[in-house]
Amino acid sequence: MKRAGEMNFSKRSRYGIRALIDLAQNTDCTYMQLNDIARRNGISIKYLEQIFAALRKAGILRSIRGRQGGYLLVKDPGSIKVADIILALDGSYFLEAEECRDGGNGESEALAVQTAIIEPINDLMERFLNTMTLKNLVECSENNRKGTQDMYYI
Fold it and tell me: For residue 21, which phi and psi values (nearest 5 degrees)?
């Protein structure tokens, strides 16, 4: 359930991660066509081109143009960290620090929020996103798919 003010990754990162999961699940060392990935995930081809350009620039994807071309992961999914994907697409995943003005009202309170809340959250998020890999996400997706296939409806 979404709550007001809830932290959220950008659409660009969410779509990029979904597309990389799809690519990892559906490739067998051959290049995958962008339009197939876009169609399966309900993502505009133009938008996915922009996302994949950033992922290619970050060294996560390789591409080949032409009829037999497409995209391929550069590394094994187990060595692609979610942190690297988000950094490539959004530049950062950290909560922003609140500005503390010299001598102004609320400076010590703002500093308390920064040191007691924001910095620990950023530390936890960094550790988590650097241990979560594309392989973990592929396994989760496959488990979710199996779980929905095993459901019986009356």
Answer: -60, -45
pTM for this model (two decimals): 0.82
Angle ∠(29,64,34) on CA atoms, nearest 5: 75
- How many other C-beta atoms lie within 10 A of the C-beta of residue 84? 19
Cα distance between residue 80 and residue 67, in whole Å: 27
Q: Which two tokens stand for residue 30?
A: 């051959």
Report the 3 state secondary structure along 71-127: EEECCCHHHCEHHHHHHHHHCCCCCCCCCCCCCCCCHHHHHHHHHHHHHHHHHHHHH
Strand partners, 72: 62
pLDDT in tens, 115-128: 999 999 999 999 99
Q: Is 75 left (phi over 0), alpha (psi -120 to 50) or beta?
A: beta
